[in-house]
Amino acid sequence: MTHSVLLHHRRMKLYTDVRSLGGLASLGELLDRGHWRERIEIAVMHRKLIRVRKGWYALGDEPEAVIRAWRVGGRLACRSAVAFHTGTGDITVLHVEVPSNAARLRSPNFAKQRLGRDDGVVVHWVNDRGNGDRRAAPLERALEQAQRCRAP
Q1: What's the whole-model pTM score?
Q2: Among positive and negative, which fits the CA dihedral 35, 133, 115, 93?
Q3: Which of 57, 80, 111, 125 has the smallest set of CB atoms within 10 Å of its CB?
């Protein structure tokens, strides 16, 4: 195998691994799968991966709402998750589900900035994440959250 073919194979494996982890992967997960920090940084430089927040990466084609929710520290919830699953609705107010013990929530726009009141985020604190994936709460759960949600 030539050097360039080997590099292409490793690069494709990186993207396949991130996709298999739900489109979002921690640095530790990628290192455990044999990827090098240098390769990850090169993918970020070429915008194939996005550094969502410290130690977390997403594929470059992930929906913006998913990246913004993950940057806050969780996954899409409530009306945002319903819009994600159904492909309908506008996600102007971002609803994010985070564990009840979550700390250091960040702005959906700037990972180095703490979450503020005017960031347009409704946080849904949960004791049990339940099923679903890293991107969004399951549709049934999101619909239940939307019925109880008092946010505008």
Answers
A1: 0.86
A2: positive
A3: 125
